Amino acid sequence: MIYTRGGAPVEYAIPRIADRADLHILALESLPRTADLVSGFTVIDGRDTPLTSQDVTARIIHEATRLRADGLVTLSEFSVNSVALAAQRLGLPGAGPNSARARDKRQMRQAWTTAGVPCPRFRPVRNAAGLLSAFRELNPPLLVKAAWGTGSVGQVVVANESDVAGAWDAARQAVASAHEAGFTRLQEPGAVDDFLVEEVIQGSTRTWWPEGSGYGDYLSVEGIVCAGIYHPICITSRIPTIPPFTELSNLAPCVLPEPLQRRIESVASAAVNALELENCGTHTELKLMDNGELAVLETAARYGGVMVLPEIGQVYGLDMLAALTDLLLGDKPDLPDRMLTDADASGAAGSLSLIATDANGRPWRRRLTWDSTVIDWDRLLSPGSTARAVPGLSIPDGTPMPVYDNASGARGYGGIFFVQATGASTLVRDCYSILNGLERELSHGWDLRVPAQN
């Protein structure tokens, strides 16, 4: 296993992989402290490896050869290409020679455009002049995004030509700052300057969700590709993003009517098939539009991060990590015959951002410190629901909450909650309650601890 930041929490992932094989972890950065909670693996310290694609690939090949490894796996976006290339050179199952199509958003969009998969019109850009030229060719408003980025870092909306220069500076600075802070791992040469700009999709829930459902116009299909054959597993839903397009949640099950879920499945399948991947997990994001139309946003050649895999395990009883481990060891994974829907689900579970905004993206009025011990969950949650901050994905108690701004994306997260409820509608209600009530809970706890000033 090649470890870099991102993906499922290690305390969840490691035991499930180690249960099926002797597990050696090449740690390209320090494992989270929560790795101390699990056993059944050895660690190879790879922190001295330069984080460029060529160096990382060479280090993987060296260690895998030394260990006579039967398979390679990563759960992080930042290692997908290096692991795929190393597996190819070693003759092991992997995402294959086209893995970069699921990493570089420019290649991804081009593959979809060629295949006729519905996606936004775009242009690659590497400087402010290129952005200005693209602005004049496309239909604004436009979204600037990092070609190799994740977590919405560096995404900036440009509505007017006069905003182009400022938008380019803001997007590039956000990516550069994230890279310098160690938030991203840009292994491709010059990746800090690799951007694309695309037309903003006019999303709509009107022909999809009933009014007042609480769901957003954005969802994902989680799946796996086995020997080039795509297997969609289930759809996960969202509540609306906050500006510019920062995600707040990932929720299972999806409760759209089955005919609509099958339509989504069909478009996701076309998108994944166009990338021509071989053996890997997938996470495909789509935008809902009026008149039952869809547009594909992104596909990753790895599973969804945060708590997506625990959600699927909780709601559907399906161990996606076991399936991937078996696949990469050359065995046939145990998969459902067709994509699962809410009819196959039991209960509901979701990932929810620990973030210093409310559900509409309004920043908190006070700069507060995260402290899980002061939260009165009975005031926030429905009967039978639970929520906890995920240790491996969240800041520890006593840490000031990050201040959110529109270009920071996931850098503005304090962490991730794992929320469980008796049903999908209850889960949505609880998510809104947490987002809109957390500032009050932390403020109340702080006020109780700080003596009043005369």
Task: Explain this structure.
The chain has 454 residues and is an alpha+beta fold. The chain has 4 domains: 2-92, Rossmann fold, CATH 3.40.50; 121-199, Dna Ligase, domain 1; 201-346, D-amino Acid Aminotransferase, Chain A, domain 1; 347-454. It contains 11 helices and 15 strands. Strands 4-7-5-6 form a 4-stranded antiparallel β-sheet, sandwiched between helices. A hairpin with a 5-residue loop joins strand 11 (280-288) and strand 12. Helix 2 (53-67) crosses helix 3, helix 4 (105-115) packs across helix 7 (258-275) and helix 5 crosses helix 6.
Task: For the structure shown, list the relevant keywords.
alpha+beta, single chain, 454 residues, Rossmann fold, Dna Ligase, domain 1, D-amino Acid Aminotransferase, Chain A, domain 1, four-stranded antiparallel beta sheet, 11 helices, 31% helix
